[in-house]
Structures are given as C-alpha cells and as structure tokens.
Amino acid sequence: MFWGVLIGVLAGGVLGYSFMVDDFDLQATYMEMAIGIGIGVATGTVIFLIGAGVVSGMDYVRKRKAS
Q1: Distance between CA atoms of residues 17 and 20, nearest Å
Q2: Angstrom distances, CA of residue 23 to CA of 3, 17, 19, 20, 26
Q3: How far apart (Å, rounded) are the C-alpha atoms in residues 32 and 8?
Q4: Eight-class DSSP state of 25
Q5: CA–CA separation, 30 vs 11, rounded Å?
Q6: CA distance 64 to 20
Q7: Is 11 in contact with 32 (CB distance < 8 Å)?
C-alpha cells in the first residue's frame, strides 16, 4: 500500500511536470517511467535476494551447530 501510494505520487509528479513543459510527449514520459520502474524492481530484487541468502546462511550455520 505504502509503495503504491509513493509510485502514484511519483507518476502524478512526472505527468504534472510534463504538462507544464512545452514539449510534452506522453510516450516518452511513460517510457522513462517504465525504465525507472524496471531499474527499481531489479535493484530491490537483488537486495532482497542477498538479504535472504545471508539470513538463510546464518540459520543454516546455527542449525548445524545445534545438532
């Protein structure tokens, strides 16, 4: 919910800025937003996977020591 609101505010801001600029190109605006979203999703996925791997590795080591 929080991220959806932030993305909505960002999209609104980008479109609002584009309306104020003389050379408004909706397709280029959406393309820039799509590229930014793609980079953000990829970065978030990599960070999540690294964190999950570290936590999984720590849990594995803890279980090996207990037995």
Answers
A1: 5
A2: 30, 11, 9, 9, 10
A3: 15
A4: -
A5: 9
A6: 61
A7: no
Contact 30, 45 (CB under 8 A): no
Joined together, the tokens standing for residue 6 give: 């932030």
3-state secondary structure of 63: helix
The predicted-structure confidence for 12-37, as pLDDT tens digits, reads as follows 877 777 777 766 677 887 888 888 88
Model confidence over 42-64: pLDDT tens digits? 998 999 999 999 999 999 888 88
Q: Which residue, 38, 8, 14, 41, is CA-closest to 28? A: 14
Determine the distance from the C-alpha atom of residue 10 to the mean position of all C-alpha atoms in its chain, rounded to a whole number. Answer: 12
Residue type, 19: F
